[in-house]
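Homework help thread (please don't just give me the answer)

Our assignment gives two proteins as sequence + structure token strings and asks us to describe the second one. The first is just a warm-up. Here they are:
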Amino acid sequence: VSTQSTWATEDDVPFPKEFQTTVRSIFKRLFRVYAHIYYYHFDMIRYLGEESHLNTAFKHFYLFCYEFNLLDDQEILPMQSLITNLLGPQYLEKFTKTK
């Protein structure tokens, strides 16, 4: 995280050209972690009574991705029904409008 070739670590250093690509890649991977948790571990999350925490964390994560266009439409397909249930269909429009 402190490498200037990837991150702007000083106020007077501009972000590198590939910064957005790097950030999008990181968020794509984090989205896949959420997908894995929901698909393979949600029964345990529910058993522990922690689904509201997971849902809240995912909503915040997804809304950040939505606001800054960090995910592609292909990436969200596996979680489309969950996103609709948690946030409503309007939060998929950005991805489905272009088709």
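The one we have to describe:
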Amino acid sequence: PLYSLQIHNPISINYRMTEEAEGPTIVMDNGTSCFKAGKAGDELPQVTDMATYGSPVSNGQLANFEAAENMWENFYKKQGLQAFEHPLLCAEPLFAPKFVRERTTQILFEKFTVPALYSCPAPLLALYCAGRSNGVVVDM
């Protein structure tokens, strides 16, 4: 697959495919204790899973990519969605290591063939959800 990489700031990377997607954007948050995913614009996530396949997260970072792949695959299957039809907004921890972002991106583009991917720090998404573009987010 063809994709370009644009670095907007040190913690936010935008990956874009050259083709247009047809379906609504999917929002995923791998979370520390549970996986949440759904369509952008919905009030609540359609799936909240307490890591049925083993937690892919360790010390707040995505560590078990095989478990993550199983969770993502299960989400798309349960929702009857085709990953290649929907852009993906993926919440990530504030200081996610570069190799985690790169591996996640590789899996999502090569295995799931998502048409577009935006990885965004979870605290920034919390601000956007509250209708703000700046502020203080306390994550406990």
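TA reply:
I won't write it for you, but here's a hint about the kind of observation we're looking for: Helices lie at 65-79, 98-110, 122-129.
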